[in-house]
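Open question from group meeting: does this chain pack into something compact, or does most of it stay loose? Before anyone orders reagents, we agreed to write out a predicted structure and look at it together. Recording both the input and the output here so the notebook holds the full record.
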Amino acid sequence: MKKNVRQLLLTFTENYPEVIRLKAEIMSLKKARRSGQTETAAASSDMSVVNPVYQDIQQKIFDLEAQISSLESQNQHLTQILNDREKVLRDIPESQKNLSVLIQERDSNRRVYEELLMRQSQSDVSKQMEIGDKTTNFRIVDAAFLPKVPTSPNILLLVLMSIAVGLGAGSGSVVLFEKYRDTLVDIEQLHDFDVAILTTIPTINNPQQIQMIRQRDKIVFTISSIYLAGIIGILLRELYKRFF
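Structure tokens returned:
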């Protein structure tokens, strides 16, 4: 039993349950030896030491007890962590309330600071003016504020007017051109002149001319797109400067 105690002390401390139990058995055996029960105790002790099956089972019991002790320690640690997390969760509403109060105090202090800073600047200006002209007292009625956007020219209004004028001029030009041009586009227009139609000449497609027309249309479309994108960009920039 002392040998088992020494083996256990190589792995565990003096407070390990099995170590305490073996020490208690050793003390009881010593007391039994003094009272005349030494032979029975020694026989049972020798059987427990000599029997390898008993030692194997006893070692497994030691290992299981060690695992149980480790798991209990982990359980206590996890329980402590869980309690801490629950406490943090319970304190979140109170923390949010304190944060809102601090934010309000910060905003209030900022407004007071800005007001005091403005008064200080007004006082400095008045002081400098009185120093320059000692015979006159100056008092600032309304403080001057730097505008965020230019007062003139109103680029937003100019852009909108330009878009409206451009659309109107373009639409009017197309209507006038279609109304007053002196060329015939459709055969139905000949009926207004009360003349006999003998025959019609079909359209002769020229691939080179069609290709040139397509290239011209592409160039016009590209220039128009770039122009429109520039106008939209200027309009968005002015809107952002005014409202943001």
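Observations to bring back to the group:
The two ends are 86 Å apart (CA to CA).
The chain is about 75% helix and 0% strand.
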